Structures are given as C-alpha cells and as structure tokens.
Amino acid sequence: MSARNCCFQFLERGWRTPYIYQFQGFWCQPKEIQAILLFHKHFQARESDIILATIPKSGTTWLKALAFAILNRKQFPAFSNNHPLLVSNPHDLVPFFEYKLYANNQIPDLSKYPEPRTFATHIPFQSLEESIKKSNCKIVYICRNPFDTFISSWIYCNKLRAETLPPLLREDCFNMYCNGAIGFGPFWDHMLGYWKESLERPDKVLFLKYEDMKEDTSFHLKKLAKFLGCPFSMEEEKERVIEDIAKLCSFEKMKNLEVNKSGKSIMNFENRHLFRKGEVGDWMNYLSPSMVEQLTQVMEEKLGGSGLEFKLLS
Ligand SMILES: Nc1ncnc2c1ncn2[C@@H]1O[C@H](COP(=O)(O)OS(=O)(=O)O)[C@@H](OP(=O)(O)O)[C@H]1O
Predict the structure, then answer these.
(1) If exposure means fewest CB atoms within 10 Å of the residue's CB, which of 2, 48, 72, 129 is most exposed?
(2) Assigned domain for 5 exists
C-alpha cells in the first residue's frame, strides 16, 4: 500500500509542512507515512536489537549519544581523541527508521549492521513494526515535560519551516499542541503507549525522563547501561567512565563541536538547530499564565491517573 492509497480520515495544518495527516491514530507527514509503510513491510527485529524511541524534541539527540557511547565504550573510550561522537552527529551514528533507513523509498540492507543493532524512531508504540513489539529486543524511551517540549518544537519548526509558509504563531501552535495535532502526537498517546508497556514489560521498555536525566545523569547512565545488558563494572566506576560519558555527551560539549555547529544530519537540516538551550523550565520565558493553565488541564485530563508525572522546573 502506498501513502497515496492510504485512507486519510483527517488532515490538519502542519508545523513544518503545509499539512499533517492522521495515520494509524497519530499525526505525520506523507513522506513519513511512506517510510513507515516500507519499515512495516521490510523490517525484521533481532532479539539483540536496541530501539531508541521518542516524540520529537524530548531528548532524542542526547539519548542517541549516550546509548552509542555506552554500547561502544570498549572500542571507543569516552575520553579518546578519536571518538566518533567528536566528528559525527548522534543522528548519523544511530539512524532513524523513518528519516534515514526507509526514507526516500529505500530498503536498507541491515544484515551487515554490527550487533547490537541500534536504531531510533519517533513512531508511537502501537504502530511499531510487529516483530519489534513481539520479540525481546529492547526499547529505550525518553520523554520530556510537555511545556518544554512544546517550546522546543515551536522554535525548531519555525527555523525549519518552508520559506513559502508564514511563520508559526506561538498561540496557534500552542492550540494545535493542546489538541494533539503535532508530528507523531497527540503527545499524551505517544507517552502513554510506551509508559504502559514499560510498566507491563520492564525488561522490554526502559522509560526515562529528560528532567531526571539532567538532574542525575550518572545514576541514569548506570540504569541505562544495565538495561542495555552492559552494566558498568566496579573498575569502570572507579576509573570514572560514567562521568567521562556524561561529559562527552553533555549539551555544552556537543553544541560546541564543529560537526554540530556546521554539519547537516537529519533530512539535510542543520545540526546547530538541534542544540538550543538544553534546559529544564525554559517554557517560563514563553508561556502566559492562561497557556500554563490550559496545558496543565490537558495534562491532568489525558495523563491523570496513569502515574506519569513531570518536573516542570530544575
Ligand atoms: N546533549 C544534550 N543534552 C541535553 N539536552 C540536549 C542535548 N542535545 C540536545 N539537547 C536538547 O534537546 C532538545 C532537542 O530534542 P531532540 O534531540 O529530541 O530533537 S529531535 O527530535 O531529534 O529533532 C533541544 O532542547 P531545547 O534547547 O529546549 O530546544 C536541545 O537543546
């Protein structure tokens, strides 16, 4: 089935493109739908695969860097001068299914990927390819408080928006966000899909939060390494390997690397836009009291009772 033949029940104004479409219960662009259909048809998970999942602007770039550094630390110690993260953007080291591997009508040969194969996606849990859901391959999900995620998305999309389109007004965008009409959203369905699976199958899905990672990076790196099946040894802890990885992947370090100042990775977008402030609570500089009230209500209505809660300030 091609994207064109799919039955689109709904269409909404897009953030980066003129329109977004509802596909399998979430919002996305036609190019993404085309790639997801190919991914569904051709991808076959291995038990050893690792999938990093996020809704956009929740810490994807950071999680990719951390997972890569943890998994490859024997070959590339975090302090080494030839570490791949010093010359490559994390999106080039851990490819997205929908923006890289299956984009532009490609069917990749993934048989030669070194194990554990590590991939990334923004696709909601419900719409992942079946073998990913059924096998014991591991999924790491990171999410971020919706206030900061909204601001990060709004600013990023305005930078990448087609020049032929008018700028995205904060108020319009905010209403779209609260109504769920954002790429891969509604955000609450995206979060709850992975959240519920992490509660039911904690060995399958590790659920992380951006704010917790910022607050105590070392603690969460240990948790991540253990989940990925490569816990830090006592010796590594003594040698401060965890701190070295946290430092290599820190916002300040990554933002100032030449590859992230001048290179291009996802969909030919400039890497520098991926590194803005990297803070918890920047929403305070942008949202009016009535917007705060509105989003708080949406979160209570949609996430209330799920046990999923967020820290809104650092
Ligand atoms: N290393 C590191 N540490 C902490 N925070 C980081 C890091 N790298 C990127 N960022 C911040 O993450 C926000 C971008 O989110 P994503 O990486 O998910 O974007 S994307 O979906 O891949 O386009 C965006 O947040 P805002 O600064 O609030 O816009 C980035 O600045």
Answers:
(1) 2
(2) no
